Records
---
Amino acid sequence: MTRVQLIGVGKEYPARGKQAAPVVAVDDVSIDVASGEIHAVIGYSGAGKSTLLRLVNGLERATSGRILVGTDEITNLPESRVRVVRGGIGMIFQQFNLFHSKRVAANVEYPLIVAKVPPTERKRRVAELLDFVGLSDKATAFTDQLSGGQKQRVGIARALATNPGVLLADEATSALDPETSQEVLALLKRVNSEFGITIMLITHEMEVVREIADRVTVMDAGRAVEQGDVFDVFSNPKTETTKRFVATALPTEPNAAHLEELRRRHRGKLVTLTFRDGDVDQPVVFQTIADRGVGVSIVHGGVTDVGGRSFGRLTLELIGDDLKIEHAVAALAQHAELEVLA
Ligand code: ADP
Ligand code: MG
């Protein structure tokens, strides 16, 4: 069980060439990842996510701030000690980074050889790990005979070989199709729940955050612009960057073009209701509308799961005479967050 703390961390790369300015890849970022938590870091390409992970595993040195992995302050350890701390950190990558010339079992065994684990113990551990990721029957295959999802499962088995307390995943599902991506995320969830391994996971896909993370940090141009419990951030995004990410993974209000299209097809009054974690009693909502003698159809939106809680946004068309609709809207506003679409 390992906590990871980043406290005011910065990373600046020196200018390349005379005209160029230095690049501030990470700018004053603080993240406290509790032991056993799955923490996602999301941001667009170039936001500084990969740099941040390389700082955590000590492959690069921060230019400011402090990073603690467990009780080890990696930011001021000599390289020889950093290597020891890195032994307690597993890494998986978008491109898997496997040895193509080695068989599956040998890939998983490699970190155990580096850690000088005796051969019989190595064989036992490799068998156990391949069983855990469901690849026992592929032990003697070469990695280029495997599908992308299988390769990433080998990557996960290898990362777990030395029993790390922390697993760092850099776009681990970005090269996979959606279905395979789901399988790998489910496996990472098992890694977290069965072994209590803390996971820091970097992604540019909000869907990944929604599926698996407990908490999330949104990065933009090197800075952490938003942070918190996944459900809270999703259901109430504050910054433009977060809003754009959330829109890719949650039911939204219709955008301007879509609204115009909806109006062409629907003559009634359009309203959007937001449902957060069962805070709205849906039968009451629909009964309220019916009680006012108003008809209703759902024209846009849906309900989805975020961090094990439900989030919904439904755009309804209310049909009937103006006064009845006005009363229905007033009554609805007592029961749910409601927006009348202008
Ligand atoms: P992300 O993973 O979010 O796409 P990166 O951490 O890879 O972002 O990069 C953040 C910024 O730092 C980018 O502007 C990138 O060009 C720059 N950068 C990354 N690594 C280096 C490096 N070794 N030298 C100089 N600049 C770098
Ligand atoms: Mg990256």
---
Amino acid sequence: MTNPLDVFRDGALAGHVAVVTGGGTGICKGIAAAFARFGCEVCITSRKQDVLDATAAELKAATGRDVLAIAADVRDPDAMVGVVEAAKARFGKVDTLVNGAAGNFLAPAIGLSPNAFRTVIDIDLVGSFHAARAAFPALRDAGDGLIINITATLHYHGTPLQLHASAAKAGVDAMTRNLAVEWAGAGVRVVSIAPGPIAETEGMKRLAPGDAAKQARKAVPLGRFGSIDEIAASAVYMRSAAAAYITGTVLVVDGGNATLGAMMMMP
Ligand code: NAP
Ligand code: COA
């Protein structure tokens, strides 16, 4: 299969500067790597400095590009301001934010403590707001600003064991639409990319462990899990000039999973 990233030309994202939350691992590491490959300056952030440093070193070896790695918790609004300021100080501007930091686990609604529910809402939804709010002045000042919120398709149906994450991602998609409208005048586009089941990620390890992965695959009309590079390719597209007229949109990248309407698994 052709690597989806090979369709883009070298330098396609030259001149852009992105902050990627959750960029040390998984899907957002893939987005950070693709952005760097196509000429974008990148700052990755999450809670674990050692993980970020290892990813930055890997991306430097792969692309020759110095990636800024700053530990911060998206639940801390001041820390998010600090990350944006540090990226701006290093690269001169920030014109792109990828909100990928998230937490999830399988749990029945009745088994969620108030703190468990709040924790996922705080990371996914409130954390995305903190990062967007922190980035807005830089995105506006840079011109051609863009926020990509990484959401999901859980909330399109009543997905069992996923009340917390469904509520959080529904809120993030709502934020995408509201900010797209409010910030269009400031030259900032806001979109969501909603992955379906993506192979070799922490998310799939947690949501479809062991045999559940076989079941989950049956719920994908295209017959396979997606790849991290397929989500990264959608992010490169959204950052490219080809998507300049797109805002407020949720791009679902899921092999038809949500269209089928099948649940990934029953409890
Ligand atoms: P992942 O590798 O675990 O990515 C989540 C990232 O968020 C980690 O790098 C984690 O790093 C960071 N993070 C967690 N809590 C944080 C906090 N409080 N502050 C800052 N960073 C925090 O999982 P993934 O599966 O690649 O998921 C990436 C994104 O895709 C998520 O938004 C997820 O909801 C979405 N998604 C994934 C799938 C899938 O199939 N995997 C499907 C649909 C949507 P630290 O632990 O270092 O903080
Ligand atoms: N089932 C039910 N409740 C759970 C749970 C589970 N599997 N895992 C954690 N919780 C609860 C905890 O018990 C706690 O509630 P309590 O204080 O009432 O006991 C609450 O959630 C917060 O847990 P804690 O471990 O203190 O939070 P944290 O901020 O350190 O970590 C998580 C956040 C729980 C989301 C953690 O799994 C994480 O860091 N995830 C990041 C990676 C990830 O989830 N990747 C997949 C992205 S799709």
